[in-house]
Structures
1.
Amino acid sequence: MILPEVDKQSLIERIIKLQKSLEKKSEKIDFFEEHNQQLIEEMKKKSKLIQYYIMREESGALSTTSMDEHKRQVAKRGTGIMSSLYNSAPNDTTMTLELSLEINKKLQAVLEDTLLKNITLKENLNTLGAEIERISKDKK
């Protein structure tokens, strides 16, 4: 069966159009899969942080009121940027709301990173302890 030339050309154009559409959709799927994986990793990190805070609160490791009062007293004497952050009132003339928020954001990121590293180190220590125990049992 021989198709007219016009029909062949329109079919080829249609195939090309569908292939381009398929390629775009494949790229979107790849992007969403990668983004989904990133979100899952971020959620795991946040879950570890929440777990850390809950365990810390349950163990009573949160600062006491006397410790908070001591920090307030130190902050009252201070005139630097950090005392401005703790007091919620500017002790330093260069402290602006934007600067305060930026410093707070950076400190939060450092805190989260440090906590995640500490959690990972604790898990590694537990794994090493279990491995040492297993090896010592095998030798006996």
2.
Amino acid sequence: MDKNTLIAIVVIFLLVLVFQFIFLRPKIEERTQQQAQELVEEQPQVREEEEEREALTRRAEREELAVPAEEAVVRTLSVETKHYSIQLSTAGASIVSLQLKDYLDQDGRPVELVEYDEDDIRPFEVHFDRLRNVPFGDRTTYYVETLSPTAYRFWRDFEDSKGKIFRFSKTYLFQDDEYMFDLQVQVEPLETAEELYLNWDNIAYTLVWGPI
């Protein structure tokens, strides 16, 4: 093999290498990047479609929940004990009046412990978040179940921060011979036994005594 032939082979080899680095590799990298970009663009779309299907499923499940046929209505319930008279509203399952029979004001009437304006927070309203300068708490109209003449259970279904349905209930238990009464709060998942995400600004809910 003469010198010129050897030089020609080396030159051709170098040209092939240069062609690969300058032309072929950028095209391969560009094609790879394009495929990766298409995959990234497809993922949000897939997630959106999955979320939409889950939302439709949750909506269908919620429509099948066993709730009273009639809508919950705003009404006031009255309870009388030896020491006080109390009124409960289905709006927020809250206390709207609590009068002490053994203590009278200057006009000779039972002392009223609950005095509020319409926009004030009412006793034992719930607020699903941190309490800041909120005008009032939860005024959702609750369903009510009479357990006895001095015991009532209020309940309503809500969604957690991930769309799972749960039942929030408040049960008031009054005793005829005592000033104190019990308030039992229950959170019950309705769809599955999975953990509920009751976390709004690091607070599940706040039960308040108002006005504050």
3.
Amino acid sequence: MKRKTLLMKVFPALIIFSLWLDGWFYPLLLLPFLYVILVGKGLGAFVPAVGVALAAFVGLVLVVDLLTFSLFGYLLLPNLLSLIVIFVYAPLISLLSVSLCVFVSSKVNDVRAAMQLGGSSVVPVVAFYFLFLGGIISLNLITLVGFALVLVLASV
């Protein structure tokens, strides 16, 4: 499932790089509707990535609830934390990775370099994860809002 999401986030980088390689990207920069083209390419990767994340979340909720309802007597998921993660963080992380891949692919000369540099978009998520695992931060509302603001600022 992660490979499909990664492919959807890298796909706009490949499109913009191929436009640049064929010599079409710089003439497109002179056109007044370049912003619309870049937003369209970004949305073409953002919408499926968020859709796949939501579908995976629904599958996870169904499996967890089916396996644990008889044990606990109530539904474990969805809870407030999982809803915040899926409806706030999944779109923000997708937006960050897609916008970074589109930006990087318009600046580099090689598609492999664009993919490798685009992979750096997961650094904030991995950093947050390891800070949580190390006990340095906790998953309270203030921390979640702070990390959401970091993702918003990094995406813009």
